[in-house]
Amino acid sequence: MKRYAHWINGRHQPAQDHYPVINPATEQVIGLAPEAARDEVDAAVTAARTAFERWSRTAPRERAAVLDRAADLLAARAKDLVPLLQAETGATMRVAATMQLPTAVERFRRYARGAIEPDTIPLAPLPVKASPLAAGGLLGAAAIRRPVGVVACITSYNFPVVNLAGKAAPALAMGNTVVAKPAPQDPLACLLLGDILQQAGLPDGVFNVVTGSGATAGEYLVGHRGVDMISFTGSTSVGKAIAESAGRSMKRTLMELGGKGAAIVLDDVTDGALKNVVGGVGSTWSFHCGQICTAPTRVLVHRALYEKVVTGLQRYAETLTIGDPVDNSTIIGPLISAAQRDRVESHIAGARDQGARIVTGGTRPDLKPGFYAAPTLIADVRPETAVAQEEVFGPVVVAIPFDTEDEAVEIANGTAYGLYDYVFSGDAGRAWRLAGRLRSGNVGINTVQRHPETPFGGFKESGVGRDGGSFGLHAYSELQSVVWPS
């Protein structure tokens, strides 16, 4: 059984204690992750603090070259990393091979280019009158993006390396240093990123990784005086606790939190286009077992099309193969843990008790070992019930009918979340206007595909700030104004 070590100041740092990382499909231990104590978190933050002065003053082209080489090295390690990612996340081999690693490579490559994007915004000179403060004259000025400092990157369990790459790459591109704390369920591949970045030429101390099974290491990292910014992806409840702690020392925060995506299906969708609706909403089941915050977990359908959509989704769900994620025929693998499976089942039971109709699924598949949940469609759900309000993070879709656009908007906006919504319509202009009424950071019109350069983040309790594309560079920088006499 391999014992992994923290990555601190350019070397593997053995830990006194370890905890088991479990394969969600086999329920077997696949590795022992280090359990961080306070002194190890201190060492990682100190290393990042010390390395900041040099790295922040490194030429942007040098930073770009390091990130580009890291992308090459990460891709070259696919043969080793993809099976590890598959085993610790429980993702199907299709998702592990096409999304878990390649997307991380793309993010390092994207922010290699980002490192050399202009960081200075010149401002037109302005004549300024004399005042008791200073003499008058013509003043020139510029706004310059500067690195924030030491960034703590606390990541989610669904796409561990992808999520870490999406934080660390833009942070490093802007000249920040990083202390990463991966999700406790699947940190092993993240621990290997240190070696890869070192081989790419990243100086010691610029990137560090510590792990832990509980909240202790993360809480200490968030409150650490040596940390300047917290970038977090995860649940809204944890995000609120992080924001409260970070606020005591006015740390910068970037929060990507929960979602309860609504897919609004208007009455002008043709029978032929309903296949697109079913496939889009069905991605909640077929893509990583619904463990994705952007999933369209609520389908709001005009009453004229409601039963057609429900029937189409039922048929779609019943074609999906549940089973061993390393089998190429499998579409739906396990959830990340027994606790998460129990949480999903509790939501389904609550919906049943409140009179909703379980159209398909709703019972635990007869598969052992593994933390499996069947793709579940729940119809005739009241918008105020828990299954329609709370993030389930599993293969569960709820269907809600509506009669008017105003009613659809009210239902869609009627949760605490506002991360990603969708509008399906035969009239793109109508869909565009409706999108403007949704309190959501992202809206897809007739697609569930994402554009990688758009700003990503949420309204309301779905988060604070935006990353993605050049907006990711903005997120990991501070604006400094410089003024001089012309």
Task: Give me some keywords for this one.
20 strands; globular; 486 residues; Aldehyde Dehydrogenase, Chain A, domain 1; Aldehyde Dehydrogenase, Chain A, domain 2; 17 helices; alpha/beta; 6-stranded mixed β-sheet; 2 domains; 7-stranded mixed β-sheet
Structure description:
By secondary structure, the protein is an alpha/beta fold. The chain folds into two domains: 6-257 and 462-485, Aldehyde Dehydrogenase, Chain A, domain 1; 262-452, 3-Layer(aba) Sandwich (Aldehyde Dehydrogenase, Chain A, domain 2), CATH 3.40.309.10. The protein contains 17 helices and 20 strands. It has helices at 38-56, 60-76, 78-89, 93-100, 102-114, 160-173, 188-191, 193-199, 216-223, 236-247, 274-286, 306-318, 338-353, 386-389, 405-412, 428-435, 469-475; strands at 6-8, 11-13, 17-22, 29-35, 120-128, 137-147, 150-154, 177-181, 207-209, 229-233, 252-256, 262-265, 298-302, 357-360, 376-379, 396-402, 420-424, 442-445, 463-464, 477-485. Strands 14-15-16-13-12-17-18 form a seven-stranded mixed β-sheet, sandwiched between helices. It has a six-stranded mixed β-sheet with strand order 9-8-7-10-11-19, sandwiched between helices. Helix 2 packs antiparallel against helix 5 and helix 5 (102-114) runs parallel beside helix 6. The longest helix is centred in the N-terminal third of the chain and has 19 residues, at 38-56. 52% of the residues are buried. The model has no long low-confidence stretch (mean pLDDT 97).
